[in-house]
Amino acid sequence: KAMLAMLALVGMGIIGFADDFTKYARRRNEGLSKGWKFTGQLVVAALFAWGAVRAGVSTELSFVRPLGIDLGPVLFFLLVLFMLTATANGVNLTDGLDGLVAGSAALVFGAYILIAFWQSRYPDFYQVDGALDIAVFAAAILGASMAFLWWNAAPAKIIMGDTGSHAIGGVMAALALLTNTQLLLILLGGLYVMETVSVILQVVSFRGFG
Question: From CA 94, how far away is CA 199, in angstroms rounded?
Answer without folding.
Answer: 10
